[in-house]
Each structure stands twice: as C-alpha cells, then as structure tokens.
Write a structure and sequence with these properties.
The strands form two sheets. The protein has a seven-stranded parallel sheet with strand order 7-6-5-10-8-11-9. A four-stranded mixed sheet has the order 1-4-2-3. It has two domains: 75 residues, 2-Layer Sandwich (60s Ribosomal Protein L30, Chain: A), CATH 3.30.1330; 163 residues, SPOUT methyltransferase, trefoil knot domain (Alpha/beta knot, 3-Layer(aba) Sandwich), CATH 3.40.1280.10. Helix 7 links the parallel strand 6 and strand 7. The longest helix is centred in the last third of the chain and has 19 residues. It is built from ten helices and eleven strands. Helix 1 runs parallel beside helix 3 and helix 6 runs parallel beside helix 10. It is of the alpha/beta class and 275 residues long.
C-alpha cells in the first residue's frame, strides 16, 4: 500500500504532519538527531516514541541507513512520521540532523552504587571519572572513546558539566546509548569506589609516574580534571596513584578528550596482554 504524504498546505505552525506537535522544551522527551544516533537508540532498546524522517529520503528509498532504521523501527513498533526538511531544521538543536530526528523517553538515572552492584561478580569495573567538562563536543567525544574502550560508566559532577544534550549524543555517534552517565559528587564517587576496592588513578600533568608504567588492569577508575584545570587537591588526595602523560612540546597539557583516549586505550592494551 502506498503512503500518502501530506503537503504543507493547511499545516499549523509547530506541527509535523497532522497531530504531531513537537515541544522542544518538554523535559519528558530526549531528541536523538542523526542516522547513527537514532539507529543506536533503537538498537540499544531505548524507548522511542516516534521518528521524524525527511519525506524526500523516504520517497527516494535510496538511503540505505534510513531504510535500515525504518525496518528496525517497524520491528520495534515505533511510528515513522514523514516530515518536510524545513520542519526538521526547525526542530533540530544540533544543525546536523541528517534528515532524521527521534523522540525518546529519557533513560532512568542510575547511581554509581547501583551500577557497581549490577556488574558485581560479572566483570571487574572500569569507571571513568571527569572532574569538569563544560563543552558539549568534548563530552560527546569522550563518551564515544569510553564506549570503544569498554568503560562501564562515566561519573560527572552534578554541576559545571555539559548536559547530555542532542549535540553530545550526536558527537558521540550513538555511544551515549550504551555508556551510563552518572551525576554524582566526585568526592562521594571516589569514596564509593574505594569501598569497592577499585584502584583509583588520577591523571594530570606532573603526576608521580608515567601512565604506561603502572598496572591499570583489573578493577580500575581513571580520574581526570577539566578543560581548564587539573585535579583539585581534594580529588588528588583520594587517588591511589597519580600518573601523567609525557609531553615534549612547549604546550604544557593536552585537551582532556585526547588525554582520556590515550590512557583508556593503554588500559585496554594492558588487559589484552593479561589475556
């Protein structure tokens, strides 16, 4: 049966096709933008209410990723809403929606204690702790890197950190659908990790050891400062070891996202050697 697409005529401002009004300020909805983000949202089992797709892409049938998404959406019972490109532009918060935006139910929040309990006896925890990351693109890139390195969760402070926005999800390329982001006091999180006998490594310029000289296998937490500063004295004192990345240039530090990637994958390398 062919699908009849509705024209712009007669549509009210703020509607996407008939009866599909979108409120970008609805706190009960997360917007997922872009092909990979929407696909991973569906693939991860995220509860998605509906997916708005560029009507031209649906008509042409030439976009393989869009076809894959629509097929998966139908399997999941998620409504597909053919939508004019201009309307997608109006809704988008990233300016890079790739002709597809999904309305998703926010994920239930999880505590660090709950996360550690859920994996106890199944695997050794691998936790990333971020002191402060204010820029959405940095946070999105870090989430993507963390997912690739097998991180179980990322702990961020309740304040002075970028929100898990559509931009963060877009930059993460869908990795935000798999790595829990836990908002918790950093000092409290480190106390919880210490009680669980997780080895805590702080990472900053001027650390006591080079990061590759330390055994980071097993139950491990890696702690980083922020974009503009290193670890606070309070956080540093709660780490078991403080390591650094050697630099040869005149600039005294790396972007926090780069630093995270370097050390996360050293830990992954060591785990591989351990077998």
């Amino acid at each position: 049966m062919s699908r009849k697409f509705e024209s712009k005529r007669g549509r009210k401002k703020g509607d996407i096709n008939r009866g599909n009004k979108v409120n970008r300020n609805d706190g009960n909805i997360n917007f997922l933008e872009g092909r990979n983000v929407v696909f991973e949202g569906l693939n991860s089992g995220r509860k998605i209410k509906k997916i708005f797709i560029d009507v031209g892409a649906l008509k042409s049938g030439k976009d393989g990723k869009i076809a894959e998404i629509t097929e998966l959406a139908r399997e999941r019972g998620v409504a597909i809403v053919p939508t004019e490109r201009g309307e997608l532009d109006r809704i988008s918060q990233t300016d890079s929606h790739q002709g597809i935006i999904a309305e998703a139910v926010p994920r239930a929040e999880i505590s660090l204690t709950g996360l550690l309990k859920s994996i106890r006896g199944k695997k050794e925890p691998f936790i990333l702790v971020l002191g402060e990351v204010m820029y959405e693109h940095n946070l999105g890139a870090i989430i993507r890197t963390a997912e690739g390195a097998g991180v179980d969760a990322i702990v961020i402070p309740k304040r002075r950190t970028a929100p898990l926005s559509p931009t963060v999800a877009r930059v993460s390329m869908g990795a935000s659908e798999y790595v829990p982001l836990i908002r918790e006091s950093i000092t409290s999180a480190l106390s919880i990790l210490r009680r669980e006998r997780v080895m805590i490594f702080g990472v900053e310029t001027g650390g006591d050891h080079q990061y590759y000289d330390m055994d980071m296998t097993g139950s491990t937490a890696l702690v980083f400062g922020g974009e503009d500063r290193g670890l606070t004295t309070t956080i540093r004192d709660r780490c078991d070891e403080v390591v650094s990345i050697p630099l040869l240039g005149k600039i005294g530090s790396l972007n926090v996202g780069i630093s995270v990637g370097v050390v996360l994958f050293e830990r992954l390398r060591q785990e591989g050697l351990k077998g």
